[in-house]
Amino acid sequence: MPWGLAFLPDGTAVISGRDDGSISTLDAATGAVTPIGTIEGVEHGGEGGLLGIAVSPAFAQDGLLYVYFTGANGNQIDTVRLGDGAIDDQRLLLDGIPSAGIHNGGRLLFGPDGLLYVGTGDAGERPNAQDTGSLGGKILRLSPDGSPAPGNPLPDAPYVYSYGHRNVQGLAFDDQGRLWAAEFGQNTWDELNLITPGGNYGWPEVEGQQPGDGFVEPERVWSTGDASPSGIAYWQGSIWMAGLRGERLWQIPIVDGDAATPTGEPIAQLTDAYGRLRTVAVAPDGSLWVTTSNTDGRGDVRDGDDRILRIESS
Length: 314
Known about the structure:
The protein contains 2 helices and 23 strands. By secondary structure, it is mainly β. Strand 17 (229-235) and strand 18 (238-243) form a beta hairpin. It starts with a strand and ends with a strand. The strands form 6 sheets. A 4-stranded antiparallel beta sheet has the order 1-2-3-4, with no helix packed on it. Strands 5-6-7-8 form a 4-stranded antiparallel beta sheet, with no helix packed on it. It has one domain: Neuraminidase, CATH 2.120.10.
C-alpha cells in the first residue's frame, strides 16, 4: 500500500509501503520497482504504519532518507542511510507523536528553508489539537538533525509551527514560499489551509469556514464525500490535491500577490478514473506523480492496483 513518495537528486523515486514497512525505489525511465529494505519497528494497524518519506536536502553528502511511522510507543521520525542500493543505519530523530488506528498524519516535507515540516493528526483524541504540549494535531518544524527549528513561533512548544489541526496529510510550498496544508474534516468540511506561523486552525472548536475567536479560517473547503484529502503538491501555478473518498485530483489555482482570496475556483481532474488517490509529488523532470490507494482496506481494488501515475507537463 504505497503511502510516501519522494525523489532522489538523480530522479529515482523512493516509495514507502504503509502495511509492510518497506522502502522501494522506482526507475523513472523504465518503471522498474526495486525493494531496498524495511524500516524496523513499524507497527501497522488501521491507518498507522510506515507513512511519509523525505529525501535529505544534503543527500549527495549524507545519503539520508527521513521516514515517519507508527511504532510501539507512538508515531516517530527516523533517518536511514541509502547506499549501494540498500538502506541501513536507522536512527531515531523524534518520537512522542500520538498514534492510533486513525488520524496519524504522517506527511514529511523539506521546505525551501532546508527545514523539515511534519503533518500530524490528533490520533482520535480531539484535545490534542489545541494542547500545544502535545505533538498531535500540529504542523511541526524541525532542523535536519531533529532539534526544534530556530525561530519556531511558540516558545513553550519548541517543535510546533501551527496547531488546531485534525489530521494533516498534505503539505506543499508554492512559488511564493507560502506553506499550504490539506486536512481531513470530520463529517462536513475538508480543508485547504494557508499556514501562518503560530496559527490556530480551530479543531475541534470549529470545522470548515466558521468564524471563531482567534482561529485561522481555511482558504477552501469541500464536502468529505468530494475530497477526504491526503497529499498535495504545487505544480504549474496550482495546488494539486489527492482525494481519497472523493476519488479525484483537485486542481486549485493559486493567485499571485496578496489577494484577499489567494485561490481560484477548484477544478476536479481524474474524477472516478483511478479510484482513491493518496500522494502527489513533483518529479525532477517537471512531471506530476500521483499514487492510488485502493489496497488500503477502504477502496475497490482494480487490476494493477496500486498504481503510480505520471502526468507530463503541458
